[in-house]
Design a protein that fits this description.
Elements lengths: L7 H15 L11 H14 L2 H5 L1 H20 L4 E5 L6 H4 L7 E6 L1 H10 L8 E6 L5 H12 L5 E5 L8 H12 L4 E9 L1 H11 L26 E5 L3 H7 L6 H6 L16 E8 H6 L1
Helix pairs in contact: 1-2, 1-4, 4-10
Length: 288
Amino acid sequence: MATIHHVSDTARLAAMFRAKENERPEPLFRDPYARKLAGEEGERIIASLPFHTEHEWSWITRTVLFNRVIEEEIRGGVDTVVNLAAGLDARPYWMTLPGNLRWIEADLPGILDYKESLLQGETPRCELERVRVDLSDAGARAEFFRFVAARTRKALVITEGLLVYLTAEQVAGLAEEMAQYRQVTRWVTDLASPGLLAMLQKETHHQFSEGATPLQFAPENGPAFFEPHGWKLLSSPSMLHEAARLKRLPNWRMRMFAMLPVGDTKKMGKRPWSGVCVFENQKLAASN
């Protein structure tokens, strides 16, 4: 039976995994808002998706790696964090952030209205703005980035759990749009290999209802895909290797795989791999 009817349903799934982590005796992070945001629908979704539950480690590791990048970039002088397709992420409320940091969330009106209603009365730890925008609309997206560029000196863009639902053409367009602005200095995103994508499609295709956006983006050349579109790779830690370091892999077989070297990420092919990639705007890199 289909469980995912809209990409926003995956935001509830992610929130449930954050809620489960928050309730562990020694969590890797604390998101006290996650269960409330996931709601009963989030509990229903996670209960019906055993494959994702078996790979809970990947959702948690991704969050940990994104947290680390955000913290490092803020220490490096970032004054604005732009969260594209922010979903039910509540980091402005629970991460340790400077009060003068600007955090801009962009997503569809429905999910931002829902989140805003549940967090009413809560106080973010930084300056928080929510922008209701359809990022698939080229004109609206261009207007949004002009809005961002006018309000920042040094911005970090985060796209967590987004790109895999886009086409290669859409990802290239988004990359080029952002690269136009020197103010958008860094970009952090998660990325999957074609081998991992094929496995995910096989295991999860039945979960998506007809008309729901499928999993589809996993470039053969990995992070190198972004080079001609304006972005220079700075780092791309493997989620499997990081999960092993965090002692979150669920069985000995996965721990054995984590002992193998990553290899050349420009030659992904059928090899299953996922990582969190940090890119620098090449306009900035060229001036350094």
